[in-house]
Amino acid sequence: MKKVLGLLIIGISLYGIVCPPVKPDAKPEEGGSETQDEDTGLEYDRYLKEVVMALEEDPDFRKKLEETNATDIKNGKISMHLEMVAHGIRERLDEIKRREVDRLRILAREKMKTMNGIQKIDERILHHLDVKNPHSFEAKDLEKLIVKATTDLDELDKKRKEEFKEYEMQKEHERKEYIKTLPEEEKKKAEEKHVEMEKKHQDHPKLHHPGSKAQLEDVWEKNDEMDRDNFDPKTFFMMHGMILGSKDQLEEVWEKKDHLDPNDFEPKTFFQMHDINGDGFLDEEEIEALFQKELDQVYDPNAPEMTNRV
Are residues 97 and 34 in the same domain? Predict the structure, then answer.
């Protein structure tokens, strides 16, 4: 999706790209879907996306969003600027919140029926909005939504990583148990094949984290044909118009994610827009959208040696 939601789901979206599924029968998907179509896994997923989409239609709030660092977005401080949002969008936010409050009321009634009024409803399902004010969407609602989503997505990410570790252990256990059932000659062949697959995995081209020093040095050495030992970040950014990635890649982000005219693409402006903290360097959050293609090469569904690996 766009910047707020993109920052919130970055961990999960990257995890979905580079990891095979936890369920043994499920098939991994090549690459990742556009953020707006991707289910965050949150119980209030629709509400979160509707709020973000409405806010980013306001040019003043969008500009403020672009000027705000990632930390102040994720801790909810950006909510103090809700007052600048246009009246029409504020009314739409009010309606979005009222629908969410109605949904929660219906959910609460259904749970009360199933529990026969014996057990108290878990109030954590209400922490993503201000229930004391069910009529209008205020700064407190935005702050609570962002903080809750950030926390919940972090927990989901940890859970999925733990499940993936268990998945790997289970697959290895199943492999060893299967080997035990084979005749001696077949055991040897199966082990040799396993060793071969492991070697292919080890020999698979390593992916340097996008924006890391190692990745920049690779571009410096292989693309720019410069001495790796003489790598200089400032010179590198000047050579590349202050940005990384192919011109086509960056223009695509400029047009589809930044919603700007492709004919007006300007490298330095692009870099400044995506260098959120102004440190002259693109960190993990800032470059997530720029290097999707490089991330895609981590997992090739047609390569058997990659089936059970991150």
Answer: yes
Structure tokens given for 179: 């080997």
Q: What gap in Å lies between CA 106 and CA 124, rounded to an integer?
A: 16
Structural domain span for residue 51: 3-158
First to last CA, the chain: 25
What pLDDT was estimated at residue 178?
92
Of the two residues 129 and 212, the one the predictor is more confident about is 129
Asked if 291 and 210 touch (Cβ cutoff 8 Å), the reply is yes
Q: What is the Cα–Cα distance from 5 to 145, expressed in whole angstroms?
A: 11
0.70 exceeded by pTM:
no
Chain mean pLDDT for the chain: 73
DSSP string of 196-237, one letter each residue: HHHHHHHHSPP-PPTTSHHHHHHIIIIIS---GGG--HHHHH
Tell me how many helices (H) and strands (E) the chain has.
Answer: 13, 0
The token pair that represents 202 in the structure block: 């080890």
Q: Report the C-alpha gap between 26 and 38 in whole angstroms.
A: 17
Same domain, 87 and 172: no
User: Are residues 196 and 106 part of one domain?
Assistant: no
Residues 232 and 148 in one domain: no
Please, how many CA atoms are within 13 Å of residue 162, restricted to the half-sphere of its CB?
A: 6
Residue 136 in contact with residue 97, Cβ under 8 Å? yes
220 and 196 assigned to the same domain: no
Q: Which of 158, 173, 192 finishes a domain?
A: 158
Count of domains for the chain? 3
